[in-house]
Design a protein that fits this description.
Elements: H1 7-29, H2 34-67, H3 75-86
Length: 97
Amino acid sequence: MTRTKSLGGLILPVVLLFIGAHFTFTAVQGDYGLFQRVQIEAEAARLEVQLAAISQDVARIELLTRRLSDDYLDLDLLDQQLRDVLGYIRADEIVLP
């Protein structure tokens, strides 16, 4: 006697194969997949570098602000700011074009 494979015995493995393939694809390519995780980690590293640079700028600006405050006035910094921002010069200076 020869046994013939029925169509019902073939459908279940094929369906399970497609379900497994779907979950595998989603685990790699999906919104929470491996590729998305790599992109998020790369962006986090880039943002940490940017945060460090901004923190240095903030520290520098806080120092300059403190040096120009009423409690501690740095006359050299004040003179530099007057020259750079407002374009002031002293009476005894000569400007060459």
